[in-house]
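Below sits my pick:
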Amino acid sequence: MKKLLLVFLTVVSVTKTDLVFAQVSIAPTTIFIDQNGIGSVFITNPGDTPQEINVNFAFGYPGNDELGNLVMMYSDSVRANQFGIDARARAFPKTFILAPQQQQTVRIQVRPDRSLEAGTYFTRVKVTSNAQTADVEETVTEGVSTQVNFKFDQVIAAFQKVGEVTTGLEFEDIQVTQSDDLLRIVPAFKTTGNSPFIGSVTTTLKNAQNETVAEQGQTVALYFSGKRAVEIKLPENVPAGDYTVTLVYETKRGDIPSSDLVQSPTITKTIPVKLN
């Protein structure tokens, strides 16, 4: 009987929060290009199977829709021309085989462009991994053999700071809605300065006696003006009445050193709300 191998290839895209499920691990999860145009990322294969690795670049950034939901933007050609570094970025090595329990350092080099104005420029680094496919002659037995091969795309951000960089936020209308045990706050904001606002926001709900009823923190990456919702879970049986919500935006987060982040003074916004 003729020997035949059918290989099914599945592509799975993952974000930073999904890295635990991927076939390789990446550190750091955000790359900052230094003044020499160099950055580094470490790719580790914790498994028992050799992995084929490919490193590419694609301009993109986290944006939002009209409801304030996070939406990844990969087709903004105008801002790609203004802020993208993917056309000037190269990875060394770009493709390689990563043996089990081994780590590879990948250097990211960004060619200089002396025409750039001061500001922060960026792209996304896509690391694709899939198990190395054995030769057909070595894997096929009598009949039909089926092999499922998962391909994972892990995408992380890369930034290059040029000249003096600043960032900040200004707030306009803020909408608050209550749904069962969830309070959803949707601020309309304007980014200021010449760099994205990368940091965190802490949301605090206080009652009329100025007692903290609920508090929640999350990371934020606000590149361009728009809306970005934050949500806070309400305690069970919270009494109806008058409350205040305070949003505190800071340019700090646990996974990125403060020295890498473009700094801004702490921004605080307080909104009165009425719970039903």
